Amino acid sequence: MEGSEDFNIELISKSLNDIQAEKTRNERLLHTENSRRVNCEFELQTNYQKRKDIEKKHQETIKELATLRNKRVTIDKHYDEIMGEHDSYRDEIDSMKREENTRETEHKQR
Predict the structure, then answer these.
(1) Which long-range contacts (CB under 8 A, 24 or more apart) does 63-71 make?
(2) Rounded alpha-carbon distances, angstroms, from residue 58 to 51, 64, 104
(3) Does this model's pTM top 0.85?
(4) The pLDDT of residue 99
(5) What pLDDT shows up at residue 43?
(6) Collapsing DSSP states into helix, strand and coil, what is residue 1?
(7) Over the stretch 50-66, which tens digit does the pLDDT of each residue have?
(8) How far apart are CA 107 and CA 91, in angstroms?
(9) CB atoms within 10 A of CB 101
(10) How far is the C-alpha of 34 from the C-alpha of 96, rounded, in Å?
(11) What is the separation of C-alpha 84 from the centre of its chain, rounded to a whole number of angstroms?
């Protein structure tokens, strides 16, 4: 009977050692998975913040573009006004030259 008890004790001891080894492996796996989860959450948060920063820069760029467009419209208006004045002055100068030519022609005819 003693031999079978020793065998049973050995079998139980081996089973306990196997169970302890499995428990240790599972704890290591759990620790590894927890580390991965923490790293993934950190990466997710980092990517979220990067996306928010990019969206903010995008909005700022859109505002800057609108400002530049408004400035261009203003410049175009001023250009048109200046060109209108230029055309008006040129027309006035041409008219004055015609009048001067007319007077010279009349003066020569007399």
Answers:
(1) none
(2) 10, 10, 67
(3) no
(4) 92
(5) 98
(6) coil
(7) 999 999 999 999 999 99
(8) 24
(9) 10
(10) 92
(11) 42
Tokens of residue 44, six digits: 């997710």
Following DSSP, what letter does each residue of 25-76 receive, concatenated?
HHHHHHHHHHHHHHHHHHHHHHHHHHHHHHHHHHHHHHHHHHHHHHHHHHHH
Unique residue bearing structure tokens 């998975």: 33
pLDDT one-digit tens code per residue, 82-110: 999 999 999 999 999 999 999 888 887 86
List the structure tokens of 43: 């990466």
Residue 75 CA: distances (Å) to CA of 28, 82, 84, 96, 109: 69, 10, 14, 31, 50
d(CA 42, CA 29): 20
Calculate mean pLDDT across residues 3-25. Answer: 86
Residue 110, both tokens: 């007399």
